[in-house]
Amino acid sequence: MQAIAPPSQSFIRTTRPRLAPFRLASIQCVYRSDSVNFPNGVGLSRADWQSSCAILTSKVVSKEQPTEKPGSGTGSEGSADHIAAVNGHKTIDLNLVPIMDKNKTDLAAADINNNRPQAKPLTITDLSPAPMHGSQLRVAYQGVPGAYSEAAAGKAYPNCEAIPCDQFEVAFQAVELWIADRAVLPIENSLGGSIHRNYDLLLRHRLHIVGEVQLPVHHCLLALPGVRKEYLTRVISHPQALAQCELTLTKLGLNVAREAVDDTAGAAEYVAANNLRDTAAIASARAAGLYGMNILADGIQDDSSNVTRFVMLAREPIIPRTDRPFKTSIVFAHDKGTSVLFKVLSAFAFRNISLTKIESRPHRNRPIRLVDDANVGTAKHFEYMFYVDFEASMADVRAQNALAEVQEFTSFLRVLGSYPMDMTPWCPSGGD
């Protein structure tokens, strides 16, 4: 990968509090020439420096960089004398010292006198290598602490370092920019159906599905201490949470307005932060403890069989196996519309491969297909991308042959991931 050099003595930091969700929009560049220490080219902490470099990379990656010539001493081969180990990986040492050049000795000497060292080029391995040997995984999720996505991240990766993000796309970017090692994001709910936004982001980004986790959802009605249900005029939460509790709210006799916010725990945080005594939030029992709220009603979901399926995303795919149940997710499209769908499904049916999910999403690049007929005029058909999950590993010959046949019928085919199925015993939600 091409090396990228950051501007000297310019650092990037976030302006939000420590527990606040990570926001790309809240990043700013700050000049810090007086208070930053550089032991071995690292800033105040290696994590801060790595995150800063990753964010910097996202802003300059589109700019063309000159190609290093072999043997020049500035490329990866020329820097073999500066190898260091981070988390078990060999990486380029970040000693921010002037790079001596035979033709620029005077200039380098002047930089030393002026205390303006030149930064060595960074590589992707300098930003944030994947943890090894039991190191703590950094897992991005959408929401704030107390969100169901945080609980799913903890179930998928126990003892992980959960990184809150304010948007789904920011969680994708956190993994792509090496700020996080994994992302755990919801993909479908047993009551609310598919989370279409994440299906679209799976196609837009190049991350791989490496696992799944199913989390029972247990909603609670939360309010500030001392507030009673008859005082409420408004209930806020995520749109799906509001829909999943609609009947129960009516049975409780609550004549309140429903307002949607970005996530459930964020609703609890908002009520607590603004001391809203006429507003309740629908969130988890853990969110009530985190934000100092009382539980007015427990288990208010309309159906106890309320389960959300999350997918685990990584930069690299895992090696498929056949010694345990696996699931594979694909997406495909065809230039001639949906008539190919039957042939694709037949490729799996003939090989006794069970499909667990099929989802269609509009083809953003070609939303409408026009078919001209001299006798009847012009017909308009919507174009779709199809997402399919099936129960087989890519190491299974049946799956390989099925996809080979599917490829003959489609103009676009991509394997999103082949990963172990969540086989944990299921039981109705009954609290956290």
Description:
- The protein is α+β, with helices and mostly antiparallel strands.
- The chain contains 12 helices and 21 strands.
- The model is unreliable at 1-19, 25-46, 52-105, 107-112, 116-129 and 367-372 (pLDDT under 50).
Task: Compose a concise summary of this entry.
Pathway: Amino-acid biosynthesis; L-phenylalanine biosynthesis; L-phenylalanine from L-arogenate: step 1/1. The protein is of the alpha+beta class and 432 residues long. The chain has helices at residues 46-60, 105-113, 124-127, 148-156, 168-176, 196-204, 239-244, 246-251, 264-274, 285-290, 341-349, 397-409, and strands at residues 10-14, 27-31, 83-86, 89-92, 138-142, 161-165, 182-189, 193-194, 208-216, 220-223, 234-237, 257-260, 279-283, 294-298, 307-314, 326-333, 355-362, 368-373, 377-382, 384-390, 412-420.
